[in-house]
Amino acid sequence: MQDAPGVGLAAPQIGVGLRVFSYHVDDEVGHLINPSLDLSAEEQDGDEGCLSFPGLAYPCKRSLHAVAMGFNEFGDPIVVEGSDLLARCVQHETDHLNGVLFIDRLDSDQRKLAMRAVRESEWSGQLTRVKISPHATSGLAL
Ligand SMILES: [Zn+2]
């Protein structure tokens, strides 16, 4: 995430099947595990991109303000609250944890443009190697 550079990265983006993401927006840096969101009805407009879609950005509506509740990397309960880019980041990354991509949230015209750009990108069709999660299941079924 830091090298990309990006403001957020969710575990599923790097092949780890855990509900956790990292964020770095302005001076706010951290990890949020198993987040739940409380979103404002007031919305924001603006371009949004994703480290999983290098070089692409499209206008995407999001709530202007978000309160994200979850746990930090030490297992302590935390609340990450913010507006604008921080709110956009926690919504985008929580979507990743729920199997939703930002292109799923675009209006139909923008989504068509995005899908065309994906098909025409140099990285389209490249194989992605997914690592098996190193976390033991301790005999529990998944
Ligand atoms: Zn993303």
Strand order of the largest sheet: 1-2-3-8-9
- Low-pLDDT parts are none
Provide the CATH architecture: Alpha-Beta Complex
CATH superfamily: Peptide deformylase
Largest pleated sheet: 5 strands, antiparallel
**Residues in helix, %:** 10-25%
Q: Count of helices?
A: 2
Radius of gyration: 16 Å
Distance between the termini: 28 Å
User: The CATH topology, please?
Assistant: Peptide Deformylase
CATH class: Alpha Beta
How big a fraction of the residues is strand?
35-45%
Task: For this entry, give a set of tags.
142 residues; binds zinc ion; five-stranded antiparallel sheet; alpha+beta; Peptide Deformylase
Summarize the structure.
With 142 residues, the chain is of the alpha+beta class. It has two helices and nine strands, in the order E-E-E-E-E-E-E-E-E-H-H.
What would you note in describing this structure?
The chain is of the alpha+beta class and 142 residues long. The protein has a single domain (8-120), classed as Peptide Deformylase (Alpha-Beta Complex), CATH 3.90.45. It is built from 2 helices and 9 strands. It has helices at 84-97, 108-120; strands at 8-10, 20-25, 28-39, 43-44, 47-50, 53-59, 62-63, 65-71, 77-83. The strands form 3 sheets. The chain has a 5-stranded antiparallel sheet with strand order 1-2-3-8-9, covered by helices on one side. A hairpin with a 2-residue loop joins β5 and β6. The longest helix is centred in the middle third of the chain and has 14 residues, at 84-97. It is globular and about 45 Å long. The relative contact order is 0.19. The site of zinc ion has 5 residues, from α1.
